[in-house]
Amino acid sequence: MTLDVIKYAVRTMARWESDAEGRLIKAAISLYDKQGFQETTVAQIADAAGLTKRTFFRYFADKREVLFSGSHELQDRWIAGISAAAAAASPMEAVLAGLDAVADLFADRLPFAAVRSRIVAANPELQERELIKLQNLAAAIEAALHQRGVPDNAAALAAQAGIAVFHVGFGRWVSQRDPAAFRPLMADSLAELKSVVG
Amino acid sequence: MTLDVIKYAVRTMARWESDAEGRLIKAAISLYDKQGFQETTVAQIADAAGLTKRTFFRYFADKREVLFSGSHELQDRWIAGISAAAAAASPMEAVLAGLDAVADLFADRLPFAAVRSRIVAANPELQERELIKLQNLAAAIEAALHQRGVPDNAAALAAQAGIAVFHVGFGRWVSQRDPAAFRPLMADSLAELKSVVG
Asked: How far apart are CA A95 and CA A159, in angstroms?
């Protein structure tokens, strides 16, 4: 094989793989929503996606992780947004630059995000997992602020404030129907935090 | 037996029981700190406290819960403080009244809290548990604010702001030696949140 053929094979495989992952996520979400998270097995998910259990476990550690596969991308974008913020930006401005960088990720995911939120809200184990992922995100934001030279306490508080704005804004976004409302709802949430903290 | 004798027996038993709980907590903390949380068994804790495993399980579901036995008292005090706040208090003022009500709980617990923090920081499973307990506290604060008529988003954001102030202030308190610094450090943490959020 020439190098070009190998490159082509790798690209095609990558495309097929990402499609398999997408099909598994879609099948899982649909089954969790219809019959409940507890009641759904990995075998059922793989079957509904036309794949094997073995393929499922190449992408996800367990059936819970299917619901959190987007958290790495969310975190990567948020951190990249912080790093790209102007050197003169305040800690909170940097955090909000990260949140703004995240907005596009959700542009075409409102129907998915709404069903996912409903599934998580119905299950205490998933709610706990969601909180831990959010706090991992807060820790990553805090570390990114440290890297910009922000002192310990300011970094911790700006990170927590950013997560609170995101958490409340996101909850409102998934409970309405306009995908483009992401940024305005985050702005509302920030304004409310400012007003509350005084 | 006369009623007085029964009352005396109940009081004495209650005192003995609360002492058993205290001895178990003391023994557990000391063993976790010395030999590690993972390495310590319930049998070792009971033995070090001069009690049986059976007694241990009357107080704690597992060895992890020993470290979180204070979280109910913390939550009860915080919520009572919110309920007792003046009707005219803003959501954040009510949250801070709750935090102030919590301060006395920690007045004589700094050495314990410092060792406990060290144990939790050394173990990811305990860190997760700590985050979940904090978020349960946030949910309880949010519910208490709802009861005061605070709207959804303001209640959620004030609760998260209060938890962030507590979390950062508490981290500083356990890393220094003056028990009386609790309130001033919380005030510093609040001032920093205000400055960060702007």
From this structure: 7
Whether chain A has a CB inside 8 Å of the CB on B154: the answer is: yes
Q: For residues A147 and A162, what is the distance between their CA atoms, to the nearest angstrom?
A: 17
User: Could you tell me the two tokens for A14?
Assistant: 């990558």
Q: Which positions in chain B touch A132 (Cβ < 8 Å)?
A: 128, 131-132
CA triplet A17, A18, A19: central angle to 5 degrees? 90
Inter-chain contact A161–B193, Cβ cutoff 8 Å? yes
Instruction: Give the pLDDT confidence of B58-100 residue by residue, as tens digits.
Output: 999 999 999 999 999 999 999 999 999 999 999 999 999 999 9
C-alpha distance from B113 to closest chain A C-alpha (Å): 20
- Would you state the structure tokens that stand for residue A30, as one six-digit string? 């649909």
By the CB < 8 Å criterion, does B92 face chain A?
yes
pTM of the model: 0.87
Q: How far apart are CA A145 and CA A95, in angstroms?
A: 8
ipTM of predicted complex: 0.84
Q: Tell me if B67 sits within 8 A of B120, measured CB to CB.
A: yes
Q: Comparing C-alpha atoms, which of B26, B23, B25, B44 is closest to residue B35? A: B44
The residues, ordered by sequence, that sit 6+ positions from B142 with a Cβ below 8 Å of its Cβ are: B155, B156, B158, B159
Q: Does A18 touch chain B (CB under 8 A)?
A: no
Interface test with B, best of A152, A175, A186, A196 (most B CBs within 10 A): A196
Gap from B183 CA to chain A (nearest CA, Å): 16
